[in-house]
Amino acid sequence: MSGQRTKSFGLLLASALLVWLYSGVAAAQQAPGLYIKPLDEMNVPESFKQIAQDEINQMATNGFVKTNKEHLGYINKIFTGKYNELPDNAPAEYDFAITARPLEELRPFLAVNPANIPLKQFRIKDKGSLAAGSITDNGWTTLIRLMNVPGVGRVALEEHDYTASGGGISLIEEAINADVNGNPAILRLKQSGDKKSSTTELFWVTDSKSYRMVTDNKLKGNGSNRFFSLARALD
Known about the structure:
Elements: E1 19-22, H1 25-29, E2 33-37, H2 46-62, E3 65-66, H3 74-79, H4 103-106, E4 125-136, E5 139-149, E6 153-161, E7 168-172, E8 178-180, E9 183-191, E10 198-205, E11 209-215, H5 221-233
Parallel strand pairs: 2-7, 3-9
Antiparallel strand pairs: 1-7, 4-5, 5-6, 6-11, 8-9, 9-10, 10-11
């Protein structure tokens, strides 16, 4: 397995501008690990800060973020194998990021240690797994698990070992509006202008991994409770 960083697959962002992952050159400018900073202290362009602040305000005021419909197709694309495209002359291992397969087939090629999902407890139907992130000497840094969860719908769970590539994560303090087992979390409900498309995203971070769980439903009540219960049950 090559230690060279490669094209990234399966971008992990609770929102486009509420979480910043860094590695490589960026990691050399900031020590690895988890950082929580106020928005005005983030070292990003002002235009990014304005968009992030707008999302934070919408979620606090309306309970959802209005989003263009074309930005809400992640679940459908990843479940139908249309999310990533294989580069020309790509190494054979790149297919791990294109074609979902049983977790045990992927496990030897992963740097990230997969969480234990209580499939029977939640009556989950496992729909396969994909590699993502970047490739290190120890394997892929990210794993995407696809599943059907009764009471929730189609779910993609992304697990990213941000320490495996020597990088880290910065969270906007004002965006944090939830927690998962005491770990900081960002919940985002997104809805298209015509109200026909929506997603629910939950992003949380531990001392070595980040998780992003997404479904293409705008969850409320029992559905939202079950979504959070699954997140908190991961081991």
